[in-house]
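Progress narrative, work stream C.
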Amino acid sequence: MGTFTIRVGIGNPEGGEFHWVNALVDTGASHSMMPASLLRQSLDLTPKEDLIFVLGDGREQRYGFGEALMKIEDRRMSCPVIFGPEDQYLLGATSLQIFNLIPDTTNHRLVPMPRLTI
C-alpha cells in the first residue's frame, strides 16, 4: 500500500486555535499519534490515561492517551490521540473511521467511504 501525508488541524476540544501538521496516513495504526509536546504545551491537553502500545517492530511502549479535536478540510471531529515522540505525526484508522474517510493511495488523498455499515 502506498503512503502519503495530509494536512490535519489539531486542537483542544474546549476551544482555541488549530495547529496544522502534515500527518502520515497510517491505516496500520489503531489510533492517531501526535508529539506529546504539541498536545501538552501548545494545546494544553493532558492524557486521560497511560497505555501500553505495540509498535510496528513488535516492541512495547507506554504512551499517554487522550482526546483532541481534529480538522480535515472543513470538518471537525473529536478523536482519540496518542501522546507520542517528537517526530510522530500519524493519522490512524480510528480517526479515519470517525471522519468516514478511506485512503485513495493512487491519488494520495482521503475520500468519503462509499457506504457506511452498522
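Work stream C, second folded protein:
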Amino acid sequence: MDYLPIFLNVKAQLCLVVGGGEVAKRKVGVLLEAGALVRVVAPEIDHALAKLPNVTAIESRFDAQHLMGVTLIIAATNDRIVNKLVSELARERNIPVNVVDDPELCSFIMPAILDRSPLMVAFSSGGASPVLTRIMRGKLETIIPQNYSRLAAFAERFRELVKTRVTNPAKRRIFWENTLDGVVAEKVLTGDEVSAERMLQQMLADEDNIQRGEVYLVGAGPGDPDLLTFRALRLMQKADVVVYDNLVSQPIVDMTRRDAQRIFVGKKRADHTLRQEEINELLVRLAKEGKRVLRLKGGDPFIFGRGGEEIETLAAEGIPFQVVPGITAASGVASYAGIPLTHRDYAQSCMFVTGHLKDGTMNLDWDALARPKQTVVVYMGLHGLDTLCTELVNHGMPDSTPIAIIQQGTTQNQRVVTGTLATLPGLAAIEKPQAPTLIIIGGVVKLREKLQWFHPHNS
C-alpha cells in the first residue's frame, strides 16, 4: 500500500489552490463541495472561478506568503517549476500537498470519487493510472444506486439509538449487517422509511436473536481468487472468525473481513497444527460463543476436505451451519493446466482418489484405478509417487500411460511436469515440485500439448 487512504475533514478550513485555469476550477469545486474555504492564487484567474462563493481570488505569482494559515494545498498550474516550488514549501511546513498529474511531487493523491453522501467511495491507483480509477468508478456507479445515500442517512439517524440498545459491539455490528443487507434496507431504498423504522424497532425488541453463532463451511477453490463464488465472497465478509487451512492461498485469506480474527489450522505432511478432532471442537466452541465462523477450506469442502466430519460434529452439537461448494482442485487445476478430465477419444470416466489415507498408507483399489479409458486424479499423492506408478503398472496399466504433476495449480506459481508412469518419478526427482500438487493420469494428459497455451498460468 503506497498511500494511506483517509477521508479528511476540511469544513470551514482554508485550502490553497495554485492555478487559475480549468483544472484548478475542478479542484476548487471538489473542495467547496467538502465545505472548505478556498484561496486561489494565479497570475490570471478564470472569471467564473473568482466569483464562486467561499473563494478568495489573488491574481499574483505564487509566493510563500500564500501558504499562511492553509490546511491543504493543490497545485494545478502547467508550469512544473512552480508546482515543484509549491510542493517543496508545503513539505517543509508539513502541509498536505497534491500536484495534479505529478505523483512524485505529491504527499497525497486526489482520488476518483463516488458520492452517495453520507456514503463516500474513493478510488486511487497511486497516480499510476487515473483513467483506470475513473473506469472503476464508472463500474461502481452502476452497482451502487443513487438512493444508497438515503440508506446511509437512515443508518446515521438511528445510530445512537442502536448504540444505546445494543451495547455489545459484536452484536451491534451483526445487527447493522442484518439491517442494511435485508428487508429494512429494501424498504428504505424504495422510499418506505416508515415501514423500515417499524421493522428496525421490532428487531431491537428481539435482541436475543441479534447474535447467534453459526459456521460457514466455504470452499475456497484451488487457489485463484477469481474462482470464488459470489456466495463465498459474501460470507467471507460477514464472518467474525476465519479458520483456514494450508491449501487456502494468501490472496484469498486477504479477501476476508479485515478485522476478523484469523486462526490457521493447516496441515502439512507429518505437521498438523491441530488434529481434525481439535478443529471440530474449535468450530463448536467459537459458534457457542456467538461468533460467525468462516471455515475456509481449499477446493471443495466435501471432496477430500473433511467437511463431512466437521458438519457431523456441528450437527451433533446443534450448531447452525451453511455449506458453500467450491471448485475442486481436480476441475480447476486440470482446466488451468490444459488437461480435460474427460474426452470421447481418451476417457469416458474420471476417478478421484487421495494418495494419503488416514493411517498414512497408500492402500488403494489398484485394479479399479488401472482400468482403461478413464482418468485418475490423485490428491496428496506427491510423496507416494513412486508407489503410485509402480502399483498401477503392476496391476495392468501400461508404463507408457501419460501422467502429470501440477504444482500449486491456478496460481502464479503453477508448474506442470509431464511424463509417463515409467519416467515421471525420475523427472519429479529432478524438477522437485512443491506441495500442494495434483496428479492426473490417463490419455487426456496428451492433450496438454494442444491446449496448454490457452491459459496464462501454464508453464
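The chain has four domains: 14-110, 148-209, 214-327, 330-454. No further action is required on this item.
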